[in-house]
Amino acid sequence: METILGIKGFDFVILASDTMKAKSVMWLDEDKSKIHRLTNYSMMSAVGDGGDCLQFSDFILRNLDLYKVTNGYDLTVRGAVHFIRTNLSAYLRSNVKYMVALLVGGFDLTSGPELTFIDSLGNSVPIRYGGHGSGINFCTPIFEEFYNPQLDKRTAYSIIEKCVFEIQKRFVINLRNFDVFMINREGITKLDSINQQSFRAKVMANPSTRE
């Protein structure tokens, strides 16, 4: 039922995730962020089993903090991806298996923006756009139609808005709110959340778009 999305632009990466916490058919909370800060220039979003996401995310965050304290500097984005996928695949060979899928986005001062898809088996691949969860089924055609490697921040945010609108229109589960973060050369910036209120405000500000 959960959904996380990511898109890479010319000099930035945007990550978005719903904020719903649910158990089976029960809605528990609508303000649970699934996007976590790894370093000043990278973030990770995770979906899967609720307990697995919580424990595995906490394990990764604590170990990256320990790495910085020990060495005096943060892991690079690619280093963080390697650490995450190595541990996720290692747990598959033990008695502890984390059912977690992730997106890792960040900005490297030498190589630029990076967005990586990691599945629950520890496989990873760099991507331009994508996501995990049930909602991604409605978003892939939107990404394919509107994506451009040179797109700017406003256009990328608009594409994410289109994805969220399609999810809320067609998905039987009501994902009420999406957190949105951008990572670029300046670091991490929290963008305006996407929800019904933001869509109504947009329509009121642009009355000509009403049908």
Automatic annotation (TrEMBL):
CDD domains referenced in this protein's UniProt entry, alphabetically: proteasome_beta_type_2
Subcellular location: Cytoplasm; Nucleus
Any single Gene Ontology cellular-component annotation: proteasome core complex
Record PROSITE patterns: PROTEASOME_BETA_1 (PS00854)
GO BP: any one term: proteasomal protein catabolic process
Gene3D superfamilies: Glutamine Phosphoribosylpyrophosphate, subunit 1, domain 1 (3.60.20.10)
Keywords: Cytoplasm, Nucleus, Proteasome
The UniProt record lists the keyword tRNA-binding: no
Record Pfam families: Proteasome
Family statement: Belongs to the peptidase T1B family.
Subunit description: Component of the proteasome complex.
Function of the molecule: Non-catalytic component of the proteasome, a multicatalytic proteinase complex which is characterized by its ability to cleave peptides with Arg, Phe, Tyr, Leu, and Glu adjacent to the leaving group at neutral or slightly basic pH. The proteasome has an ATP-dependent proteolytic activity.
The protein's name in its UniProt record: Proteasome subunit beta
Organism lineage: Eukaryota, Metazoa, Ecdysozoa, Arthropoda, Hexapoda
